[in-house]
Amino acid sequence: MSIESDFEDHDETTTTQPRKIKVMIIDDNSVNLTILSRLLNKHFADTIQLTSVQNSGLAALDQLTKDEVDLILMDIDMPVLSGVETTTAIRNNDSHSENSILEQNMKVPIIAVTTSDAEEQRELYRQVGMADCVSKPIAIPKLRMAIEEAMKTVSTNG
Question: Would the keyword Transcription be found if you checked this record's keyword annotation (predicted)?
């Protein structure tokens, strides 16, 4: 199963074209944001639409009150709100503002993209509601597999 198969665009003019997956990247390091953005644009251009690049958990929470996304790629080690704290806030609809996180975003698959990937840490990520973990530096096949698995979960549950 490919990552685009269950996200058909229902617009009458493009009924045969799959809708691209709307992805948000969250990382406090601008170099990491640039690298991941370029990887997605180069290797996933046919299936992914990079819709949002956020440099903090707080900025991401604010954006999630406004725009729906299909997938989040999240750094773990960030100041103010870590990736674990940001994920917990998303799952608990705690936007840290007066606005609520959009309902669809509260269930969106979240993949940790981190150097903190020991088994104990991966278990913590699962417990707070992350779908998977991809180690830095990123291997394209592992990222592709994580995205495909996360999107399969969405298509069978929602």
Answer: no
